[in-house]
């Protein structure tokens, strides 16, 4: 069995927005039949071909860590959740298009996760408010996914899409709007599938291929570091 | 003239209570959710406002504020309104929102909601039969019938909560019970949790890789669902899929373990926070209160006769304030623990119902603790209910609840140190 390199991507959002359904759709290419409340964290793995179709094509494991809960949880829950936020390479922010609060809470979610990142270039926030500059320097790529798209009536669609466009601007991230019970939205060749693939490529690139003049040395360095941290934290 | 002034005072205070309930709803209960149905918020605030007004009327009774005729009028008015809300409005809306959540019944929502309400009324009425709460000379549609039933439900609820609270309060606040939790314990547990997650991840990688290889080799190994799927899987000789299902079982077991470890870690973290809190000034203050109230609760369990009516009145005041505060805090915690964006409306309405019934029966029971001269108004307003029955019923349920809480907490406490031995 080939041992591939891996990247860790967090899937964050309020409870009930559809993170578990989304992760199931991304990893098993199937709709989740019986969604239930996630306790703690549930992980699933997706195999991704980096730079598919080019000579530099390489296969990676993408670990999707679906952390359950709400931003208003007790602090004991929050401190326990924080152990999952170590050495994160990418974050998928999930919100429910029919629920404005879940979109607003994404700011708090992203701050919670980014604050905990222990890498030296991690984002330090002083007062917990949203600050656009910090997102500009953010080394962790973000992706915004809106769920329950099918439940928005035709008349309200443009209003909702405008709102999410503002959100994606704030996070400096791409956005995908879909319905987790319909695999058609992520079918190969759709613009959503392309955005998803680009996001995963970006995550892998940030993790393994830096813009240093000597990319190979940096690559092997990071590889060694990666194996160590696997068993410490 | 004085009646007008009194009514204005009552109305102002009701508006204030309504505003407080509204704010509590917005800032505390629903701060993470979107309020889409304003009727829920209004019903909750109205229930809260009229419940608080009843307590206010008791205080006015004792203080002798307002004229006695206007007090009597407002008692009656308040009682009618709150019974209307608790028996007609809230149960109907609970039924309506529960039905709305079920996709099948969504077309005929109103019809099914009415059916649910009629079922509720039937059981509500039947509730009165086994209890000796009324003297037989009352008619069918008198207000005493309604109050008596609401009273039974509310008193049972109060006794259960008080019994549990009487045992839980000293347990929570007294340092003696706090387990010794060090940072090392928490770190060790977190390490175990992450190791379990790593194991799950590596197994899932194997599954994903095997699936991909089988798919690339053109074998049809996707989910064997349905009747034909089962037949197929029995007769097929694909070792790959057998291997997969074995790994999948291991993954399921590991995921269950990871959930348990997660919950244990949360438990340890909250214990550690409680220990830290008990060292602060606020913590010490509540600690002292905890000792005080545990003595009161222990007394209550052994039912010693009071030697002074007026001390009991002061305690009544304290009980009212702490029980409202305690109830709101408990409701909030409960609400956070079990609600989601789908069920939040139903849960808030259920909480409003519980709160209303709790407050109505507080009034019934408070009569027991009130000095003799003030009992008359309560007796007069509520009609000839068999108050003694309620007092005895409360005591019985209180005792049962307290004893079972002691047993439950003892078992939970005993299990905890053993869990840490296994680490």
From TrEMBL, chain A:
Coiled-coil portions: none
PROSITE patterns attached to this UniProt entry: RAB
Record keywords, A-Z: GTP-binding, Nucleotide-binding
Domain of life according to the entry: Eukaryota
Xref: InterPro entries: P-loop_NTPase
GO molecular function, one term: GTP binding
Gene3D superfamilies cross-referenced by the UniProt entry: P-loop containing nucleotide triphosphate hydrolases
One Pfam family, short name: Roc
UniProt-listed SMART domains: RAB
Its biological purpose: Required for KRAS signaling regulation and modulation of cell proliferation. Regulator of KRAS prenylation, and probably prenylation of other small GTPases. Required for lymphocyte development and function. Not required for myeloid cell development.
Assigned protein family: Belongs to the small GTPase superfamily. Rab family.
Protein name per Swiss-Prot or TrEMBL: Rab-like protein 3
Gene, per the UniProt record: RABL3
From TrEMBL, chain B:
GO cellular component, one term: membrane
Entry keyword annotation includes ATP-binding: no
Reaction it catalyzes: fluoride(in) = fluoride(out); bromide(in) = bromide(out); iodide(out) = iodide(in)
Membrane topology: Multi-pass membrane protein
Transmembrane segments: 6-26, 38-59, 79-98, 110-127, 147-169, 288-307, 313-336, 348-370, 390-411
Superkingdom assignment: Eukaryota
InterPro entries with a match to the protein in the record: ABA_GPCR_dom (IPR025969), Golgi_pH-regulator_cons_dom (IPR022535), GPHR/GTG (IPR015672)
Entry keyword set: Membrane, Transmembrane, Transmembrane helix
Family stated for the protein in its record: Belongs to the Golgi pH regulator (TC 1.A.38) family.
Protein name, UniProt field: G protein-coupled receptor 89B
Organism: Oryzias latipes (Japanese rice fish)
Taxonomic lineage: Eukaryota, Metazoa, Chordata, Craniata, Vertebrata
């Amino acid at each position: 069995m080939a041992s591939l390199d891996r990247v860790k991507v967090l899937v964050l959002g309020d409870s009930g927005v559809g993170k578990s359904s989304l992760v199931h759709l991304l990893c098993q290419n199937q709709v989740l039949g019986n969604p239930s409340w996630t306790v703690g964290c549930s992980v699933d793995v997706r195999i991704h071909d980096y730079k598919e179709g080019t000579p530099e094509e390489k296969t990676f494991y993408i670990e999707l860590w679906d952390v359950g809960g709400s931003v208003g949880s007790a602090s004991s829950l929050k401190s326990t959740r924080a152990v999952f936020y170590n050495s994160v390479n990418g974050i998928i922010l999930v919100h429910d298009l029919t629920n404005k609060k879940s979109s607003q809470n994404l700011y708090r979610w992203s701050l919670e996760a980014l604050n905990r990142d222990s890498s030296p270039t991690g984002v330090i926030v002083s007062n917990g408010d949203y600050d656009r500059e910090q997102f500009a320097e953010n080394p962790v790529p973000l992706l915004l996914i809106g769920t329950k798209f099918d439940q928005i009536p035709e008349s309200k669609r443009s209003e909702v899409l405008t709102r999410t466009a503002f959100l994606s601007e704030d996070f400096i991230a791409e956005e995908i709007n879909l319905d987790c019970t319909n695999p058609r939205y992520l079918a190969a060749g759709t613009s959503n599938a392309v955005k998803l693939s680009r996001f995963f490529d970006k995550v892998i690139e940030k993790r393994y291929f830096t813009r240093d003049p000597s990319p190979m040395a940096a690559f092997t360095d990071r590889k060694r570091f990666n194996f160590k941290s696997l068993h410490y934290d | 003239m004085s009646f007008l002034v009194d009514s204005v005072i009552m109305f102002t205070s009701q508006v204030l209570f309504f505003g407080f309930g509204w704010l509590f709803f917005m800032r505390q209960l629903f701060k993470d959710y979107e309020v889409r149905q304003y009727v829920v918020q209004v019903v909750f605030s109205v229930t809260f406002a009229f419940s608080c007004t009843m307590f206010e009327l008791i205080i006015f009774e004792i203080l002798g504020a307002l004229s006695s005729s206007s007090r009597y009028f407002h008692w009656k008015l308040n009682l009618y309104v709150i019974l209307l809300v608790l028996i007609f409005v809230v149960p109907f809306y609970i039924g309506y929102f529960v039905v709305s959540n079920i996709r099948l019944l969504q077309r005929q929502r109103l019809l099914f909601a009415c059916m649910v309400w009629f079922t509720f009324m039937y059981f509500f009425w039947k509730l009165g039969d086994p209890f000796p709460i009324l003297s037989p000379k009352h008619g069918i549609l008198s207000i005493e019938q309604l109050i008596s039933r609401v009273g039974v439900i509310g008193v049972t609820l109060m006794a259960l909560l008080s019994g549990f609270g009487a045992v839980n309060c000293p347990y929570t606040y007294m340092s003696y019970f706090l387990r010794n939790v060090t940072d090392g314990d928490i770190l060790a547990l977190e390490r175990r949790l992450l190791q379990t997650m790593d194991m799950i991840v590596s197994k899932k990688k194997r599954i994903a890789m095997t699936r991909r290889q089988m798919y690339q080799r053109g074998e049809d190994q996707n989910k064997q669902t349905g009747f034909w799927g089962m037949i197929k899987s029995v007769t097929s000789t694909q070792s790959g899929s057998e291997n997969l299902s074995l790994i999948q079982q291991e993954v399921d077991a590991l995921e269950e373990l990871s959930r348990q470890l997660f919950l244990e870690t949360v438990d340890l973290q909250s214990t550690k926070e409680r220990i830290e809190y008990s060292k602060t000034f606020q913590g010490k203050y509540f600690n002292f209160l905890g000792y005080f109230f545990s003595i009161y609760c222990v007394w209550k369990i052994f039912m010693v006769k009071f030697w002074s009516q007026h001390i009991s009145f002061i305690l009544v005041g304290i009980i009212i304030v702490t029980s409202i505060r305690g109830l709101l805090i408990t409701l909030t915690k409960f609400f956070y623990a079990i609600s989601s964006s789908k069920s939040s409306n139903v849960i808030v309405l259920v909480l409003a119902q519980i709160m209303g019934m709790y407050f109505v029966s507080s009034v019934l029971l408070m009569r027991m603790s009130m000095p003799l001269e003030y009992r008359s108004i309560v007796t007069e307003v509520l009609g000839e209910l068999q108050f003694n029955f309620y007092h005895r019923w409360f005591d019985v349920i209180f005792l049962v609840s307290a004893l079972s809480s002691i047993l439950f907490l003892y078992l939970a406490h005993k299990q905890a140190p053993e869990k840490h031995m296994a680490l």
